[in-house]
Amino acid sequence: MTTTGPVALVTGASSGIGKAAALALAAAGFETVGTSRKTSGVGRRDGVTFLALDVTSDASVTAAVGEVIDRFGRIDVLVNNAGIGSSGADEENSVAQAQRVFDINVFGVMRMTKAVLPHMRAQGSGRVINISSILGFIPQPYMAAYAASKHAIEGYTESLDHEIREHGVRALLVQPAGTNTSFEANAVEPDMPLQIYAEQRRIADQVAAAFNEDGDDPATVAKAIVAAATDSKPKLRYGASRNARRISAARRIIPARAFDGQIRKINKLAGR
Questions:
Q1: Per-residue confidence of the chain (272 residues) as pLDDT tens digits?
Q2: Which of 122, 136, 140, 227 maximizes the CB count within 10 A of its CB?
Q3: Burial (Cβ within 10 Å: 0-12, 13-18, ≥19) of residue 213
Q4: Which of 114, 133, 121, 135 is closest to 224 using CA atoms?
């Protein structure tokens, strides 16, 4: 089976931003494939074909991308959305915990990208859209591993974009701010908790939860993803909402000492 229309592949599409993005791309005219670890076999609902995929497995990635190519003959857009959060002070999280975060958030993106690039280069077009975060350019205490993974995605995507642009392929970033999803509920908890950090960890978790509860609807982020997929002259970075763009501007404009103070104030951290 092949299609004459564009084909989009969205990872982590069972809920939240991924689900909203898959539905929005389907509404925009893409033959859309959404993936999830929880999907068994192949199914279709709401105009989206769902496949099982574990982005931490080379074999699973190869099989899923091959399935899409076999079914539709092409991949025009890859949305690397699958991700996991983390909480706790860095000292409370083992290296194994950080490796788990990076295996999904960073190496999962790399696995997927490496699997689709040969097809995109062969057809002379394509877009790899990586879901970053405002934590890809600002710090967040008690989420160090997650912030590091998103900083890594920023550098990876910008560098990759220079490599593949001459082949008609682009690598782009979408940067959500707080988003009203269940993402925080699935965050990696510290596996070596220390009492000295317990109270501040509790405060930081409350700050993060409130930021997301008051955050953007996933459909707002999906709109930015569709823009990245369809703009005739795409931008490298898409702030997914007014709030994300405001924070990005603040990071660039506000003096470093003042910005640092705001981070500490928001998170109710003592000292200067």
A1: 566 789 999 999 999 999 999 999 999 999 999 999 876 556 888 889 999 999 999 999 999 999 999 999 999 999 999 999 999 999 999 999 999 999 999 999 999 999 999 999 999 999 999 999 999 999 999 999 999 999 999 999 999 999 999 999 999 999 999 888 877 667 889 999 999 999 999 999 999 888 888 888 999 999 999 999 999 999 999 999 999 999 999 999 999 999 999 999 999 998 76
A2: 136
A3: exposed
A4: 133
Residues 6+ apart with CB under 8 A from 232: none
Using DSSP bridges, classify how beta strands 7-10 and 77-80 pair: parallel, antiparallel or unpaired. parallel
In-domain check, residue 125: yes
Q: Residue 112 carries which side chain, given as an amino acid letter?
A: M
Q: Are 145 and 254 in contact (CB under 8 A)?
A: no
Residue 231 structural domain: 7-266
Amino acid at 163: E
Other CB atoms within a 10 A radius of the CB of residue 114 amount to 13
Tell me, yes or no, whether 260 lies in a domain. Answer: yes
Are 201 and 90 in contact by the 8 Å Cβ rule? The answer is no
Residues with catalytic roles: 14, 132, 146, 150
**Contact of 169 with 77, CB cutoff 8 Å:** no
Q: Report yes or no on 272 lying in a domain.
A: no
pTM: 0.94
1 within some domain? no
Nearest CA among 3, 21, 163 for reference residue 76: 3
Residue 13 is classified by DSSP as -
| CATH at residue 149 | 3.40.50.720
Number of structural domains (the chain) is: 1
